[in-house]
């Protein structure tokens, strides 16, 4: 049983290794293709006149900026969709809160007093305490020095 377990683990690791090697080979092939294209482009640019090289550089920069602009537009569209979705969820949540408040208004006065006390208790729990002492932030070094002494 133990030997079979080890064998299964070894086969699993071997499979993962083979998958990684295959993925890396594909990545190397893609990188080689990109390098070849860049070398061809560089050779073509080297044969151009200086003015044509500048023109080509400007065209490349325009293309890069256009692609970047399109990516940013897509990002803005996605963010706007997300904003609309969140606003819709907020409206639904606000409606639920209003409905809850309306149902609470119909509760008997004794029960409302009890609910009010519960809200106060929750507010006290949410308060952020810094410690037993109250001091200004700029007095902190002096306070620490006095505590040490």
What does this structure look like?
With about 150 residues, the protein is mainly alpha-helical. Among the domains are: about 45 residues; about 55 residues. It has four helices and no strands. The protein is extended and about 80 Å long. The two termini are about 65 Å apart. About 0% of the residues are buried.
| Count of alpha and pi helical runs | 4
Strand content: under 5%
Q: How many angstroms separate the termini? A: 67 Å
Biggest beta-sheet profile: none
Helical percentage: over 70%
Which runs of at least 5 residues are low in confidence (pLDDT < 50)? Answer: 120-125
Helix-strand category: mainly alpha
Radius of gyration: 34 Å
Q: What's the pLDDT, averaged over the residues?
A: 84
SSE layout and pairing:
Layout: H1 2-47, H2 50-105, H3 109-126, H4 140-148
Summarize, please.
Keywords: Coiled coil. With 149 residues, the protein is an all-alpha fold.
Keywords:
149 residues, mainly alpha, 4 helices
